[in-house]
Design goal:
Blueprint: H1 19-40, H2 47-65, H3 81-109, H4 126-160, H5 164-207, H6 214-232
Helix pairs in contact: 1-2, 1-4, 2-4, 3-5, 3-6, 4-5, 4-6
Length: 237
């Protein structure tokens, strides 16, 4: 099967909607929602990771159906690891800045909500800390960036014609869903903060030409690693 193009050729105007790309996005979103809601009945702690792992398998399948791979969406070996590490520090700063802006906005409208017992047993528990660090770098850093940035932004913008306007809308939709994914234990406050971070990460992904996902993956991992290490040390709820 001929691969579906990632973006429209330069100078190409509006074109017919690519319904196959929308179908791919809807399937993955439905899997993320359905699997998480199902497993929330049994485990608040691991419902998110289970749904993310499942969605990664489905997204990989949908890409193969379209004659594509994750490499087409920017998950590839970089030409320069040094440059990639430098860019990851930049993205790390962007996450902190956008999170701070989101926090300031959320404080105007909502009380901070957080289900501390989701991570409450991590303090001082080395095996549990190691479990969460493994999830930080799989479910959190790699899979969330691959799904919420690379997959959703590409498939949604492809559906709408890969124009600048469609890409901006795709970034916004992916960010809203990224915020929703965190609202079940962080409330509307967390929805705003993580949504703002999602906008920043999506914009950076597009700015990098949708060809370099590793800086976002590494930066996402840095932030979560610091957060869970602080919980382990009892410095954060």
């Amino acid at each position: 099967m001929k691969p579906t193009p990632i973006s429209a050729p330069a100078g190409q105007g509006a074109r017919r909607l690519d319904w196959s790309a929308l179908i791919d996005a809807i399937i993955v979103v439905l899997v993320l929602v359905a699997v998480k809601q199902t497993f929330l009945t049994y485990t608040l702690k691991y419902a998110g990771p289970i749904s993310t792992f499942t969605a990664m398998a489905i997204a990989t399948w949908r890409l193969r159906v379209r004659g594509m791979s994750w490499r087409d969406l920017g998950f590839r070996r970089p030409d320069s690891w040094l440059r990639t590490l430098g860019l990851s520090i930049f993205v790390f700063g962007a996450i902190l800045l956008s999170g701070g802006i989101g926090d300031a906005i959320a404080n105007l409208f909502f009380e901070k909500g957080y289900v501390a017992n989701r991570f409450g047993d991590i303090e001082g528990d080395v095996p549990m800390y190691l479990v969460w660090m493994a999830l930080v770098w799989t479910h959190g850093a790699f899979f969330e960036e691959m799904l919420f940035r690379a997959f959703l932004i590409n498939r949604l913008s492809q559906f709408m014609g890969s124009s600048t306007a469609s890409t901006i809308l795709a970034v916004a939709i992916a960010a809203v869903f990224f915020g929703y994914r965190h609202a079940y234990y962080q409330g509307l406050f967390g929805f705003v903060v993580t949504g703002a971070i999602g906008v920043a990460l999506g914009a950076i992904y597009v700015w990098f030409g949708k060809t370099n996902l590793l800086p976002q993956i590494l930066a996402h991992g840095y932030v979560n690693s610091i957060g869970f290490t602080m919980r382990f040390l009892g410095l954060r709820e």
